[in-house]
Amino acid sequence: MRELVYYVAVSLDGYIAAPDDSFDDFPMQGDHIDMILRDYTDTIPTLGLRATGLTPDLSRFDTVLMGWNTYKAGGIHPPEGPYGHLRQYVFSRNHGGVEPAVTLTGDDPVEVVRKLKSERGSGIWLAGGGILASAVAGEIDRLILKVNPILLGSGKRLFAERAYSPIGSRLVASTPFESGVVVNEYAVDR
Fold first, then answer.
1. Which of 16, 31, 56, 72 is most buried, by the most CB atoms less than 10 A from its CB?
2. 89-134, pLDDT tens digit by residue?
3. CB atoms within 10 A of CB 12
């Protein structure tokens, strides 16, 4: 069965974006970027792939899930969507106007995730945001958090407020970088 992986950058105080949905405060240079380009090529946006000449092999992820704010934070997307090499799902009940290659859905995120998990393929990347992550928290199999050495103070949380329901996990890898970013990988206990 495929895994749902919440792979996201986060501040030390638990924010994945600034109040305006931007990621500008997270370091975009440093040795952690080399790791992303090498090990997480599947997560590089279409425009970034064109600029770098990299080709994703889709061995890590072949599907991406985004909430509306995460999708819109990328600005204007090419016709094939922000991640044209992946199957792209955007969750919203109130918005429209996505590229033809992007599936916009108002369906229950848990049902969509369960259906995707039952299909063949590589991993399912939960790119954000916190509201969507909270909705599917019980379906997340792995968290890969790029912890950035910054305190934002406010913004979009890693997980939005949800009913009290603890979900345990265990640290399976932690890689510090000279940039100050630490990548922590957690397997969710089932």
1. 16
2. 999 988 888 899 999 999 999 999 999 999 999 999 999 999 999 9
3. 13
In a domain, 92, yes or no: yes
DSSP lists the bridge partners of residue 151 as none
DSSP per residue, 60-113:
SEEEEEEEHHHHHHT-SPPTT-TTTTSEEEEE-SS-----TTEEEE-S-HHHHH
Residues in the chain: 190
Q: Specify the CATH number for the domain of residue 84.
A: 3.40.430.10
Dihedral, CA atoms, 132, 134, 137, 138, nearest 10 degrees? -110
Q: How far apart are the first and last CA of the chain?
A: 14
Q: CA 64, 67, 69: angle at the middle one, nearest 5? A: 125
Q: Give how many domains the chain has, as a whole number.
A: 1
Place of tokens 């995120």: 109
Q: How many Å apart are CA 9 and CA 72, to the nearest integer?
A: 17
Is residue 175 within 8 A of residue 182, CB to CB? The reply is: yes
